[in-house]
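Exam prep: given the inputs below (a chain plus uridine-5'-diphosphate), describe the expected output before reading on.
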Amino acid sequence: MKQVLVTGGMGFIGSHTVVSLMEAGFRPVIFDNLCNSSEDVLEGIARITGEKPLFIKGDVTSAADLKALFTGHNIDAVIHFAALKAVGESSEKPLEYYHNNIGGLICLLEAMQEHGVRNVVFSSSATVYGSAAHMPVDEDTPLPPAMSPYGSTKQMGERILFDASIFRSICLRYFNPIGAHPSGHIGELPLGVPNNLVPYVTQAAAGLRKSLTIFGEDYQTPDGTAVRDYLHVMDLAEAHVAALNRLQQVQDRPHWEVFNLGTGKPISVKTLVETFEQVNGVLVPRVMGPRRQGDVPELWANPGRAKEVLGWNAEHSLAAMLRDAWNWQQKL
Ligand code: NAD
Ligand code: UDP
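Solution:
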């Protein structure tokens, strides 16, 4: 299994995974419509790996684009990152989200089926757990109705892969990926005002935003702020290499597995911001604000299955994640 199609490979997690794939001896083919990324990412990857990966501009909702891609390249496996990912926006534009995330997945699987490609790794999310009753969550935790159209596309995506049993599939439930490649050549490029905590923190520290608003200080958590499981994007990238290796081992079909990817360590918003300040020696101007609608008080992973089956665990500390995030922000 050498040539790997990486849909959405110009994006935040995809670009870091492309680096890990190249370093592990895979040949990634990036397929991206650049709706949330830029072609400059290729330069960043080349500066790290010494080689520009193959990039094809195209859309996963286009059967014609996919046909041209699969006809022109001998693909052994697919990692499917391409999706729209803003939770709030998904409630404003549900059809766009279902079209892109579900329509795109189906279109991709149809093209894979037609060209005899059977191995797929799917980007799922911890958001599928919603407001789970017990922490940490493991993969057997029952999934409640999704809290947003975005969350729904991840639950449905997993289910579609479960039903489409001609494929060997692995669904990876990411918790909160943050940070950047330690070189600072690639990182997260949020367009406009960031929705996510860490890009907002780095922009506030850099003076690009007046102040960070901490959403809620009245949660039933040790310091009153919400708790999440943050992991370094390079650890997450490595998990995709482990997932491909796993698919190579299991030649049986059907095969469907799901893994939590997190550190298993609960971190509050307040702790994250204070750690950022300590590690980087900069201040993050901040104010307290009301809770953000749809946020759960706490969510962190039991990552035991990924360790046991994939041999993967998150190695970077919170300090390393925040140092690399700041390094990237300063180079922008
Ligand atoms: P991103 O927006 O940085 O990357 C997604 C990439 O997909 C972008 O380069 C975009 O241009 C591309 N894309 C979107 N729709 C496309 C289409 N129809 N055809 C071709 N390309 C398309 O996002 P990311 O943070 O790297 O997320 C990658 C995946 O991980 C997504 O599926 C996301 O839902 C999932 N995920 C992300 C997080 C997170 O916090 N970043 C958490 C859980 C799950
Ligand atoms: N958060 C915050 N201020 C911000 C952005 C996020 O306080 O400007 C909080 C948010 O309420 C949540 C945590 O930071 O508790 C992580 O939010 P993010 O959007 O990064 O990830 P989520 O867990 O929502 O997917």
